[in-house]
Amino acid sequence: MASIVSIVTLSNILLILLLSSAAANAQLSANFYATSCPNLQTIVRNSMAQAVNRERRIGASILRLFFHDCFVNGCDASILLDDTATFTGEKNAAPNRNSARGFEVIDTIKSNVETACNATVSCADILALATRDGVVLLGGPSWQVPLGRRDARTASQSAANSQIPSPFANLATLISSFAAKGLNARDLTVLSGGHTIGLARCATFRNRIYNDTNIDPNFAATRRARCPASGGDNNLAPLDSVPSARFDNNYYRDLVAQRGLLHSDQELFNGGSQDALVRTYSNDLATFLADFAAAMVRMGNISPLTGTSGEIRRNCRVVN
Length: 320
Hints:
Elements: H1 2-26, H2 40-54, H3 58-70, H4 103-116, H5 123-137, H6 157-163, H7 171-179, H8 185-191, E1 199-201, H9 202-211, H10 217-224, E2 236-238, H11 250-256, H12 263-266, H13 275-283, H14 285-300
Antiparallel strand pairs: 1-2
Helix pairs in contact: 2-4, 2-5, 3-5, 9-10, 11-13, 13-14
């Protein structure tokens, strides 16, 4: 009898956990601000259009911010918090230091949104919308962004250092990193396609262009011109071999041709489980764009704060 009671109790606990998880996701809705801030999406879109018109690279930078935010304790805008004398944020974690950028753009959007809808829209939702609009403005796909996230009052530099996938990682490690966030190997491969836009620092690809063997020699020689064997860590090179700042599938064509800039990029096409999918995306732009949009929604659903959890920050850089 005791064992039966234990089984029933365990089943109830599991059911409660599943229902709680479902309830959290159910609170995210594309229409979350339909009444409280009806012009939200127009404000964000117009603000991002101005930012991208000034600097096309900013679309890639905001996409990276969102990715790095979601991989550390969920999509909660913790990456936007500044360090203070009594608070350590994530901006100076190794994956973000000297490379995370676009914070001023989010500040501007937040200010514009606050003017229209005071203390209503979270920084986490603004970052999610700005990411989508930046991709669209660079020629990428659109998607409905589920909204209703709230902002974290905490951050974790240690989690940022350990949970954001490394540009030096092998395929098994990358798959494991994504699985820890509820994302599968297909999500890994399609979300990595975001590297079709943006730039990378020499420090993140030096070892690949000097030491990897699965690399096109002409491509390696070209990248060495901007990335010496020592020094120049902050010198930049386009992640895509065709630096058009347009969101397309050239990233996958590069992988097939062994022109992936980062070691972690080329791991997706290196005789492993993702080779066939990379070939599909390299030949089929429409499939890549559709899959990317769907994967962005899944990533945006990583552990959101909802309901009464967290807060709606007045300033994205500091807790209220």
